[in-house]
Design a protein that fits this description.
about 575 residues; alpha+beta; Jelly Rolls; Immunoglobulin-like; TIM Barrel; 3 domains; eight-stranded parallel beta barrel; six-stranded antiparallel beta sheet; about 20% helix; globular; binds alpha-D-galactopyranuronic acid
């Protein structure tokens, strides 16, 4: 399900989704007992999925072994693609261990030489937490486990393209662009290999040359800069996409890119030189019946519901979303904030200074850039959420993340979400100040909002950041679906609608605020053990229930967002 379009024409991709053998391994004894050579008495499960949809494994945390046997028609280098495995993946091919992968929400690939014939792929998915985990165990979403996104393979031959970024810069009038392609080439032959390599952007061939790679060589090739005239911009009202074709004698790769410019100027966010207000929601890619193995049909439905509400932006809280979902946003002209799962209070100052945590943070950002670079809809990269940003370790980590994402992340705003704005010492490492504030829910009252905004305005000035716009990246209130009251008390749909409606008016009329993301799109499952005391064991701050039934607040937001959009 990786993409919304065919990435290849002549190259065949074999899906490994479907039935796999599965066995839990609570004592983590599988490897010692040789399960990589065959899982004993495994049951049949469907991949992708989360094991928690099985009633007997509802709250299981530990190792789960998956095994798939399949027939490979050709001999050669096989490229296995795993779109997401929660959280540590250990992999064996015909019983031989391959390099593992850490991090539950990003794609990774592995190369292996395979004979034609029957093969066994074994994956041990481990969703346990320890002091080096990202996220930490204390997190406001459910601890799902399993192979949550698709698995596939392709057989490589000749000169192949393992990855590609389109790097461009638009002229000031946005009518022309200078660009290059950064291609990761690989020679899958057992000897030196030459091929003609063609790169086309839309109808224009922008590179054509013979390349020669040694046996097994992987090489980064940066094409000479070229110019695109009469650029058709990608925008929210006209999300125009160019097709990319990269082709060697034996391999082809297709992608889609868009030209757009996002920047901060005079305290505003500009998209294609036009001031834009972000009208957004926070959305988890989660559903109680599917967990994180979220079906594409529901992705489309979520986007329909969100756009019907007049929103133009989504924050993928709190981890990289499926690429298929981001493809849909590219097509629909919706602005997206993508981040990694460094979430909140689980990260103490000490944890933020842990060498392995820092290494994993940087690896997750590097992967996010690698796989999501070309998506025009991603206008924001998020570094972390609600860490103790008044501490030196948070400062050090923010500096590292900001440096990496600004250098490698393309034309994007780099931000983080702060919940301690008055002691935060990291604001120099963001293009836009993003605040998670819950006045009227966790403390204070609805009327406190205006004062809170004025207080932060003064602090922003004191720090000398008047030119940095502010986004309210989270705000909201819980409402139990169907709970109506005359007196508008907390937990009722009326209270939630009133609070969010009030906030939207306050933000919209405040020149400091460039947008907001309501917490949250729909109710999500969380876990009692995390000690957050959530009613029903759900985070109930959704504008819709977990089954996507609208609460009163959904209609309040729709009315306001649509009215704001008309003013543009
Ligand atoms: C935080 C956090 C969200 C959610 C929210 C809440 O701001 O970033 O993930 O937990 O609080 O509902 O309290």
């Amino acid at each position: 399900m990786a993409r919304l379009f065919n990435e290849h024409k002549k190259q065949r991709v074999y899906s490994l989704d479907g039935t796999w053998k599965f066995h839990i391994d609570p004592e983590d004894k599988g490897e010692a007992e040789g399960w990589q050579n065959g899982i004993p008495n495994g049951e049949s499960v469907s991949v992708p999925s989360v094991w928690n949809t099985d009633l007997s494994l509802l709250t299981y945390e530990g190792c789960g072994w998956y095994e798939k046997t399949f027939y490979c028609p050709d001999e050669g280098v096989m490229r296995l693609t795993f779109e997401a495995v929660m959280t540590q993946a250990d992999i064996w091919f015909d019983g031989v261990r391959m390099e593992g992968h850490y991090g539950g929400f990003c794609q990774f690939e592995r190369l292996v030489y395979a004979e034609a014939g029957e093969h066994r792929l074994t994956v041990r998915a481990d969703n346990r937490f320890d002091e080096h985990s990202i996220p930490q165990a204390k997190v406001d979403w459910f601890h799902y486990g399993g192979i949550t996104r698709s698995v596939s393979y392709e057989m490589l031959s000749g000169i192949c393209v393992l990855g590609e970024h389109f790097v461009y810069e638009l002229s000031n009038n946005l009518q022309t662009a200078e660009g290059t392609f950064e291609l990761t080439l690989y020679n899958a032959e057992q000897q030196e290999c030459s091929s003609r390599l063609t790169v086309a952007l839309g109808d224009q061939v922008v590179f054509e040359e013979a390349v020669t790679l040694a046996c097994g060589e992987e090489r980064l090739l940066v094409t000479p800069r070229f110019t695109i005239t009469d650029v058709h911009l990608w925008d929210t009202c006209d999300p125009y996409l160019y097709t990319v074709r990269i082709e060697s004698d034996t391999y082809d790769l297709y992608d889609r890119v868009g030209f757009r410019k996002i920047e901060v100027k005079d305290g505003q966010i500009l998209l294609n030189s036009r001031a834009i207000e972000l009208r957004g929601v926070n959305r988890h890619e989660e559903h109680p019946d599917f967990g994180f193995a979220f079906p594409a049909s529901l992705m489309k439905r979520d986007i329909d519901i969100i756009t019907e509400m007049g929103a133009n932006a989504i924050r993928g809280s709190h981890y990289p979303n499926s690429r298929c979902f981001v493809d849909m946003l590219d097509e629909r002209g919706i602005l997206f904030w993508s981040e990694i799962p460094i979430w909140g209070c689980g990260f103490s100052e000490e944890t933020l200074g842990d060498a392995l945590v820092i290494e994993r943070t940087m690896a997750m950002h590097t992967e996010m850039v690698k796989y999501y670079y070309n998506h025009p809809s991603i206008v924001i990269f998020g570094m972390h959420n609600e860490i103790p940003s008044g501490t030196q370790n948070a400062y050090g980590l923010s500096r590292l993340c900001y440096g990496l994402l600004k250098e490698k992340g393309g034309n994007r705003l780099v931000v983080y979400a702060s919940h301690t704005p008055h002691v935060d010492i990291c604001f120099e490492f963001c293009d836009v100040i993003c605040l998670n504030l819950y006045h009227g829910w966790y403390g204070g009252n609805i009327e406190a909002w205006q004062g809170a905004m004025d207080k932060f305005r003064a602090r922003r000035s004191e720090l000398g950041f008047d030119q940095k716009p502010v986004i309210i990246s989270e705000f909201g209130a819980a409402a139990i679906y169907g709970n109506h009251t005359f007196d508008c008390v907390k937990w009722s749909e009326e209270y939630q609608a009133k609070l969010i409606g009030h906030c939207l008016d306050v933000f919209h009329s405040d020149p400091m605020v460039a947008g907001c993301f309501i917490w949250q799109y729909c109710d999500i499952r969380t876990s009692e053990e995390m000690g957050l005391g959530r009613a029903r064991s759900f985070n109930n701050k959704g504008l819709l229930s977990e089954y996507r039934k609208p609460k009163a607040a959904y209609f309040t937001v729709a009315e306001k967002f649509k009215a704001f959009a008309k003013e543009e």
